[in-house]
Amino acid sequence: MNKTSITLFTLAALVIVSAIASITFGPAEITSSELMACLVGNCQSQISNVVIWQIRIPRVLVALVAGMGLAIAGAILQNTTRNPLADPYLFGIVSGAGLGATIANITLANHLTVALPLAAFLGALFSVIIVVFVAKVIQRMEQLLLAGVAVSFMLASITQFILYFGEPFATNRVMFWLMGSLARVEMSNFYVIGAVLVIAMLIVAALHRQIDALLLGDESAASLGVNVDKLRLLMLGLCAALTATIVAYCGGIGFVGLMIPHIVRQIIGVTTLKLILGSALIGAIFLIWVDVIARSSLPHAEIPIGIITSALGSLFFLFIMYRSRPIN
Amino acid sequence: MSTLINITSLSWKIQQKNILHNISFNVRKGEVIGIIGPNGAGKTSLLRCLTNQANILANSNISGSVQLKNRDLKQYSAKEIAQHFALVMQKNDSIFALSVQDVMNMGLLPHKSFFALDNDHDKAQIALALDKVGLRHELHSHFNQLSGGEQQRVLIARALVQASQILILDEPTNHLDVYYQHQVLQLVSKLHITVIMTVHDFNLASLYCQRLLLLNKGELISDGTPEEVLAPKQLSKIFGLPCQQNIDAITGATQVSFYLEENRLEENRLEENGLVENKIIDDKLAAPIDTQCASGSLSE
Question: What InterPro entries does its record include (chain A) (predicted)?
């Protein structure tokens, strides 16, 4: 077994250990022996049984697939655009989702359980369609990121305009939603995100050689038989669907897609197959533990998970810049 | 030698400007062809048409035909074209830390189906190709950390893994030191496959190509042996500088030198002004060439 396989197997084991261990963390105290008993269907306390099976496990599983999905989306985007700073969030996906969520909150306040994720998803897809359209018109793939930032600001300003003149409660709800949280997720969310994730990973695994070919430039890839424009559009659509699904249920969780692939490149490799497998595993471990911090660090409140990922992400970013500074 | 590629009346217009105009020539199997000409002559555009990159030939501004093995290139799929043509570009940096192995793996792409992983046969092919360019020991090195010459050799090895019959190189000697220029071109000319490359330096082109194509303003001006194509009158007209053809005393290759009138030696000024067409064999005037490179075979 080579070094990469050993690293991947170790990470996979860590994902499983993290997922199980993290169930014990939270406001209601659950000991590890109690957890083990409940997991094998031998639960002594009814309350613990409910907490474990209906609250903690869905939450940990959603953290697992959301972490995987956000990290993979970042990895795919970075490899297909050859830009290590590409992140699904920079493509206006969150602003689009925010606009969708705002409209849902203002107009469909009584049906938010169904309307909010749906509207957020549609908003996210809408923003990606605009970004791709702009990039097609200007015919410069390198400027996709700049187009994303511009579209992001445009959609955010529309959202703010609506919120400013809308009712204060809706504003509060949207603000909290945008900060990201796994507090209200259900098992069904896990199935939906998981299904999109599996499809995305299969497509990427099928096309991993094509995506790798892009790493030495478009012309080199085209000479190897790759239809560069089609491939990039497909990958962008895939990232959008993946991120939009996650954002729709979990709100804004930034920096995961930027940070995790960067770590994977250092320890596993830069080619697509290694990058998405490594990103999936490290992304899952990361988000499981960040959610533990979110739900158990304050005594009577939760910290929105997006606040923690953004804080960690920005520190990580500054650290990377510090480490790659020129040394005289 | 059998004919591999037939190009007939190929023209390419972008906004009323002729990128290529009425170009016709054939490529026979095993030929090493150099495309020369001034900047903007259409050299790289001609290469792009050959590899039908991003379906360039389907472009409505292109007329004429490119046939590969008597079949129109447009009828080939992108994958089939990649199985016939391997391209080595001028600049191939990656911002990510690709290893030489990662770059070599790319060459397998035209022969792999979806989901396919690398097998032992692939690994053997890669090792063999790197052996041919003398870089097997660099398999795990970072591609970006290799010298320009080594990067070019890795890309040539990738082309060998691609197992294409025709190797296309766009300015393979750009950014290379004189030693690596000779090393790369000698390697390419001894692969015993069909090679079509653009070369900026006429004397290098002459030394390593059996046949040269001279392009100017999108037109094919001359097609023949280096001696025929590097005719001083023709070159002077295109480049606007007096030019002289020599036979290099060491390599025996046809060489040309351009000069400004004011730089001519005093005794030569006595000659009639204008273009000098007579061939001379003269050590002093022949373009100097690194004796080490010319006398022995090149190696690291």
Answer: ABC_BtuC-like (IPR037294), ABC_transptr_permease_BtuC (IPR000522)
Say whether A216 and B98 touch across the interface (CB within 8 A).
yes
Domain boundary among B210, B230, B250: B230
* pLDDT band, residue A327 (cuts 50/70/90): low
Bridge pairing between strands B71-72 and B219-224: unpaired
pLDDT at B292: 37
Across the interface, whether the CB atoms of B78 and A222 are under 8 A apart is answered yes
B105 and A271 within 8 Å at the Cβ level: the answer is yes
Q: Residues 6 or more apart from B288 whose CB is under 8 A from it? A: none
Question: How high is the mean pLDDT in each 10-residue block of chain B (300 residues)?
Answer: 88 85 93 92 88 66 88 88 88 82 92 84 90 88 88 90 90 85 88 92 93 93 92 90 90 89 70 48 41 40
Output phi, psi for B286, to 5 deg: -65, 145
Q: What's the pLDDT at B143?
A: 92
Alpha helices (H) along chain B: 43-51, 78-84, 100-106, 120-132, 148-161, 178-189, 202-208, 226-229, 232-239, 266-269, 291-295
Partner-chain contact A216 B97, CB within 8 Å: no
Contact at CB, B109 and A227, closer than 8 angstroms: no
Q: Within its chain, how far is the Cα of B177 from the centroid?
A: 17
In chain B, residues with a C-beta closer than 8 Å to the C-beta of A213 are 106, 109
On whether both B159 and B205 belong to a single domain, the answer is: yes
The size of chain B, in residues, is 300
- B7–chain A nearest CA distance, Å: 19
Q: How far is CA B129 from CA A85, B140, B165, in A?
A: 35, 15, 15
Q: How far apart are CA A59 and CA A54, in angstroms?
A: 9
Q: What is the mean pLDDT of residues A193-216?
A: 94
Q: What is the pLDDT of residue B195?
A: 94
Return d(Cα A64, Cα A194) in angstroms, integer.
9
**pLDDT for position B1:** 63
Instruction: Say what the pLDDT of residue B225 is.
Output: 93
Query: B6 pairs with which residues across the strands?
Result: B26, B67
The per-residue pLDDT for range A228-262, each reduced to its tens digit, is: 888 988 898 888 889 888 988 898 898 899 899 99
- Number of domains, chain A: 1
Q: Are residues B207 and B77 in the same domain?
A: yes
Residue A275 clears pLDDT 60, i.e. is over it: yes
Å from B196 to nearest chain A CA?
A: 15
Q: For residue B54, list chain A residues with Cβ-Cβ distance below 8 A.
A: 222, 227-229
pLDDT of residue A37: 86
Give the model confidence (pLDDT) of A45-96 as tens digits. Answer: 888 888 888 889 999 999 999 999 999 999 998 998 888 888 887 778 888 9
ipTM of the complex: 0.84
Query: Which chain A residues contact residue B89 at CB under 8 A?
Result: 217, 219-220, 223
Q: Which residue range(s) make up the domain with B45?
A: 3-230
Inspect the interface and report whether the beta carbons of B94 and A215 lie closer than 8 Å.
Answer: yes
Domain of A20 in residue numbering reads as 3-323
Residue A96 within a domain? yes
Q: Which residue of A has its CA nearest to B161?
A: A224
Taking an 8 Å cut-off on Cβ atoms, the answer to whether A212 and B102 are in contact is yes
CA distance, residue A255 to nearest chain B CA (Å) = 19
Q: Chain B residues within 8 A (CB-CB) of chain A?
A: 51, 53-54, 77-83, 85-87, 89, 91-92, 94-99, 102-103, 105-110, 112, 114-116, 162, 168
